[in-house]
Amino acid sequence: MSAEPNRLPIMPLPIVIADDSLLTRKVLTRALSEDWDVEISYATNGREALELYRAGRASVMFLDLTMPDMTGSQVLDALQHEDLNTFVIVVSADVQPMAQERVKALGAIAFLAKPVTPEALRPVLKEYGLHD
């Protein structure tokens, strides 16, 4: 008689999509692989994104830079002061090299141009072991 080892249930990966545009949130959601076991939360501004992060709902955060109330750069700065322990992928229409350098200096793991495609997203997720 062999006993099964105690196994913890595999939980979906909590992710936050933070963008003030409903259309962009939908496009990004569709760009995620259907077989990726995630629990998605949405934020329409930076303050909401931080609240979701603090509630443990953001192992991965997709973050727009230009949002009302609190910008993506301000969110990154706050996360850095709270010992950033989430993978932040900035998704922005501002594709200037200076913007990309700034967000990476603030702890973002990647910068993707809008609109995000599965082909652009997949290598980033794979590189950080977030998805096969």
What does this structure look like?
It is a single chain. This protein has a single domain, classed as Rossmann fold (3-Layer(aba) Sandwich). It contains five helices and five strands; from the N terminus they run E-H-E-H-E-H-E-H-E-H. The chain has helices spanning 22-31, 46-54, 72-81, 97-105, 118-127; strands spanning 13-18, 38-43, 60-63, 87-92, 110-113. Strand 3 (60-63), helix 3 (72-81) and strand 4 (87-92) form a beta-alpha-beta unit. The protein is globular and about 50 Å long.
The main sheet orders its strands as: 2-1-3-4-5
Q: Which CATH top level class fits?
A: Alpha Beta
Helix tally equals 5
- Compute the separation of the termini in Å: 35 Å
> What is the alpha-carbon Rg in Å?
16 Å
**Main β-sheet description:** 5 strands, parallel
Number of domains: 1
The name CATH uses for the topology is Rossmann fold
Structural class: alpha/beta
Sum up the overall morphology in one term. globular
* Mean pLDDT value: 90
Strand content: 15-25%
Which features would summarize this protein structure in a list?
single chain; 132 residues; alpha/beta; Rossmann fold; 5-stranded parallel sheet; 5 helices; 36% helix
State the gist of this model.
This protein is of the alpha/beta class. The protein is built from five helices and five strands; from the N terminus they run E-H-E-H-E-H-E-H-E-H.
Itemize the secondary structure elements and their pairings.
Elements: E1 13-18, H1 22-31, E2 38-43, H2 46-54, E3 60-63, H3 72-81, E4 87-92, H4 97-105, E5 110-113, H5 118-127
Parallel strand pairs: 1-2, 1-3, 3-4, 4-5
Helix pairs in contact: 2-3
